[in-house]
Amino acid sequence: MGRLAAWQKVGIGLSIAWAIGATVQTHNRAVQNAQNYASFAYSVCTDGKDLAHSSDMSECAKEKSNNLAVWMEGDAANVAIVALAPLPFAWIFAYVLGGLCRALAIGLPVVLPWKSMSRFRKVFVVAGGLVSVGAALFGLTYLMGLYTDTRVPVTPSPLKAMVIDQGDTVTAEGTWTREGALGLGSKLANPLQASKIICTQSDNRCVEARAQVTSEGHVLMVDEVEYDIESWSPTTIVFVDETPCARETYTIDRKTGAVNGAGTRVNPDAKMCNMRAAGETEDRWEYHLADGFKTYWDLRQKARPTLLKVVQAFFGN
Q: Where do transmembrane segments lie in this chain (predicted)?
């Protein structure tokens, strides 16, 4: 057996580095996801214990361990696939790329004497070229997809916006979208956001539980907001939120299931209400409770690099 060429030695080194790096990264990501979910389950359990005035947290610790075990199932198989599956395609791509480089250096007919090649070799050359192009396209698409994921890291909700009317209690769920001079630049209508609003006639109060990811995509924030109900009728519920600088009025249409809001500035001359830079103020804006997935998908389409849009256009995306 002859000595390995320099490019083969480099390829072996890169393959080993990929296998090790992919193994560590995939395993660490699985561990992080498992710990995040298990910690969330543990927190929910301990909160329930606190409400029940119980100090025995052993059950919560057991639940956390069980969740960790469930999330780590299949980790070895996932690691093996990510670390090893791309290597054959990478070697084929490297072989073909090396052949093309030699062809450019000494002439294509010398490297690939097509007329004198056997049928098997012709098939191998064509198949290798197609695999190489496919592998390069897949790798580029995958990297651009990862970039898009960093811009739009979560899906607010796969469900449609809905209103559930139970007479004395009306519940609305969805993702707020915003229209106004500042576009999406609002704490309430951050695009990666989901809300659940419960209005109770007997309490004359609406309570909104809101979760949102910051515009940078790095921090998940949770908030709870209470609104005063201004009017309650068989067809419409109106509730308001007033601050020193703005008044926002929301309506739930009990017939159509539409939830909308409108905001206006108040006390515009007050110093605390005029903190934005010149040109960054607005007198009126609107909110609409929309489908979370549609909002996510629209944001993702806008976040895609142009080349990714071109590639995916061939597949109808």
A: 89-111, 123-147
